[in-house]
Design goal:
Shape: globular
Radius of gyration: 29 Å
Largest sheet: 13 strands, mixed
Helix content: under 10%
Structural class: mainly beta
Length: 489
């Protein structure tokens, strides 16, 4: 019976070609599954990235790079390099697309980069699900390529909890949707007349065009956009001396199944896309989205020029920011950056409109990709703190007591709690007690035990009024904490 084999390459320069790959990737599960009956076997790529399935019966199959895959009984693949499909295939749940490994996990280093590298992840430069019909001949040309990419997420304060789900429902919840596994790169979303774009609900003033394969012309061109999967056509050129775009995969899946909005900036003030979302009044929301600068050149070209505008149902501006020159090029690898902000709606707000607006003209470099647009309600978690003094008037050398109560009004466990109260500029002989009996020196800060939801704790700080202190004394205590959904053991 036939052999089905191939190689998992490291496409360090993102050329999307096996012949110019810079290495191979070992220890990644490759699954071969019959697409009719679900029988599947998995093998780990060898030290040279190769994989081979022998004794494969005739039929329709998918060969899938599937990091993290396990058999239905929970066992993981252990065979390296070559496996006999005919004697090892067992019934399994049908795979619906592939997954790429990280740079490293607890067991393996998949790709080694220099300590100064900006690379954080891997994604696909070609599809990582191959659909094959096995007959009498061997299939030996399967080439999967993973390239370097950087994901730079938005960093939120530790007391911010982002709620699900994403309130943006336009364009498949801001992801621009999915293609079926195994589809080729440079596949665009088709439009059926009388529609002029695949997502009329995003109300773009740019012109929609279909993605193209093999063209030397920029697709999309100035003032146009497309929605597509992996972009590795010839305009995405690896020649470092040309004004080329990066070959890129979408942010959502990082392989051929994900879609992204590719934009060629043009005409200041033109709406790239907008959507309206129903919201609640007096509520905190996070608006966020992932952007990638297509230009791979570090100098000589402009940066993407666009802005974000959030307005309420009356058109009143809630938030506005110009991101021109903030989405910098990364000459080492494509970089997806998550950008966003938290805003609070007014007491009469019922809806917000999110607008992405072009801020530059036609220029090389004003080209970028947008993906995973989101609006989520957020909880801003804080502990309540109250402070009382034992008296309203004290003389020099007089003893003053401050009582502080810290309570947790949230539904989350508060941990890593630190109380800060700087008193040494007004009091001498500072000390504190938690039980009213045992006193310890007060140093200005104190780490406090965890507080469960609804719990509170008390502390008393004592000191004597310093010589030279006069007038009204104003002093404020503060508290910081980390919030967790589950108790830390």
């Amino acid at each position: 019976m036939p052999i089905v084999s191939g190689v998992l390459y490291y496409d360090g320069n993102r050329t999307a070609a096996a012949a110019t790959a810079t290495g191979t990737i070992a220890n990644v599960p490759i699954v071969m599954q019959n697409t009719v009956n679900g029988l599947a076997a998995a093998v780990l790529t060898s030290s040279t990235g190769t994989f081979q399935f022998t004794n494969v019966p005739s039929g329709s199959y998918q060969v899938v790079e599937s990091y993290g895959w396990t058999y239905d009984d929970g066992t993981t693949p252990i065979t390296i390099g070559t496996i006999n499909w005919g004697t090892n295939a067992v019934p399994c749940m049908m795979l619906k697309g592939g997954t790429v490994p990280p740079l490293a996990d607890d067991s393996h280093t998949y790709v080694t980069v220099s300590p100064t590298s900006t690379i954080t992840n891997l994604d696909c430069t070609v599809r990582n699900t191959w659909l094959e019909t096995v007959g009498v001949s061997d299939i030996t040309n399967i080439a999967m390529l993973n390239g370097p990419v950087r994901y730079t997420p938005l960093v939120l304060a530790s007391n911010i909890v982002v709620d699900s789900p994403n309130l943006v429902v336009a364009a498949d919840n801001g992801t621009f949707g999915l293609f079926p596994p195994g589809i080729v790169a440079n596949t665009g979303v088709t439009v059926t007349a009388p529609q002029t774009n695949p997502y009329p609900e995003i109300q773009s003033q740019f012109t929609y065009v279909m993605a193209a394969t093999g063209t030397l012309q920029p697709v999309p061109d100035d003032g146009q956009y497309t929605v597509q999967n992996i972009m590795n056509n010839s305009h995405s050129n690896s020649n470092p001396t040309s004004p080329a775009w990066w070959r890129v995969a979408d942010h959502t899946t990082g392989n051929e199944t994900g879609r992204m909005m590719v934009i060629n900036g043009y005409t200041q003030g033109t709406i790239i896309g907008q959507t309206t979302v129903l919201v609640n009044a007096n509520t905190c929301y996070l608006t966020s989205y992932w952007v990638l600068n297509l230009c791979r050149q570090a100098t000589g070209y402009i940066n993407p020029e666009f802005s974000l505008l959030v307005t309420d149902q009356d058109g009143t501006t809630i938030y506005e920011h110009d991101f021109t020159d903030e989405i910098l090029p990364n000459p080492e690898c494509p970089e997806w950056r998550q950008i966003g902000t938290i805003f609070t709606t007014a007491n009469d707000t019922t809806a917000v409109t999110i607008k992405f607006i072009s801020q530059g003209g036609a220029a090389t470099g004003n080209d970028f990709v947008l993906d995973d647009v989101a609006l989520n309600s957020v909880d801003v978690l804080e502990l309540d703190i109250t402070k009382d003094a034992s008296c309203s008037y004290a003389t020099i050398g007089g003893t003053v007591y401050f009582g502080i109560t810290i309570s947790n009004p949230t539904n989350y466990l508060a941990t890593q709690i630190t109380l800060t109260d700087e008193l040494d500029d007004i009091l001498d002989e500072l000390k504190f007690t938690l039980d009213g009996q045992n006193w310890l020196p007060w140093t200005g800060t104190l780490d406090i035990d965890d507080l469960e939801p609804g719990d509170s704790g008390d502390i008393i700080i004592q000191g004597k009024i310093k010589s030279g202190v006069s007038g009204t004394i104003t002093n404020t205590a503060s508290v910081q904490a980390t919030f967790c959904e589950e108790e830390i053991i």
